[in-house]
Structure formats: C-alpha cells, structure tokens
Amino acid sequence: MKGWGKRKGGSPRTVLHSRPNLDKFVILMAKRVFFSFHYKPDHWRASQIRNMGVIEGDAPVSDNDWETVTKGGDPAIEKWIAGQMSGKSCAVVLIGAATAGRKWINYEIAKAWNDEKGVLGIYIHKLKDSDSNQSSKGANPFDSVTFRKTGAKLSSVVKAYDPPYSDSTEVYAYIKKNLSDWVDAAISIRNAN
Prior knowledge:
Layout: E1 14-18, E2 25-29, E3 33-36, H1 39-50, H2 63-70, H3 73-85, E4 90-95, H4 103-114, E5 118-123, E6 160-161, H5 168-192
C-alpha cells in the first residue's frame, strides 16, 4: 500500500437550501461514496444498497461497460477507478463471500485510503440475490491491505460492519438505518489517521 497521498478528488459538494420565509441558509454536505464489490456474485446485493437512497453513490456499470474498460488493461482500469472515485468522500466495500483478496478490490481500498477518503466495509452475504439466496460470510478484505511503514493491517483501523440479523429484510433495514452514520464515522476515522 502506498504512503500518505494528497487528496486528489476534491471534497463533497456544498449545497445551499433556502427555507421558506427565512433569511437563513442551511449548508448540507452531500455524502458521495464509491462502492467497491465483487461484481459477478454480488451485483444484485450491491444494487439493493445503492438504491436505498440514503447516500449518493457511483453510477452502476453494465457488463458491457466493464468489458470495454478491461480491454484496455490495467492502466485503463486504474484510470476508470480514479474517475469513479473523483469527488467521492468515502469508499464503501460491500463484502460478499469472495470479496477479500481480489486484486481490484485491494487496489480500490488502497487508492481510497491514500487519497484520504473514508473507508468502511459492510458484510452483504445475508442479503438475498436475484434467486432469493443468501451467501456465506467472506473474510475481512481489510486484512489483505497493510500499512507500508508499520505492516499493520488496515482492519486495525477501518471498520467492517456485519448486520446482526439473518433475515434479508432485517439486514436491509439495518444497513439503511445505519449507512449514513457509518460513512460519517469512516470519514472521521480517516481524518484522524
């Protein structure tokens, strides 16, 4: 993992909303996140989280779009990831059965951290897929990424949340209820480290 890099993507946009009959303005910070996940087995579960409407995420990518990107090799993939992360304040790793240890998941985690973005994980194996099946719990992907100077695992700093329910509906509700706070906590953790 690279050392400490300067933030390259900018900060979340600031939006001014006026309140009727008031001269005050409320400044809101849009929570814009980059979602990282193992596409083939987890895209259905990931889409459930993206569509919650709790935070603003990146646009879904189709199989055809991803194939076009990958044809350009590693430099094209790195450029695509950089573009997707630009302007985001946090990377949310959606952890399925086989997420940990994947080359591009590790790259996205390291890039987000080095770009001074918040990083967090959410175990999504208990959400049902398009065939109404749950999956097995995968390993913590932050165990696969270490700090260059100390060798410590990123999991010693970054949180991976595992909803305490087995029913997919309850897992969904738990993630929806907590996602915004988890993103705030991840940004605070990154700012402190």
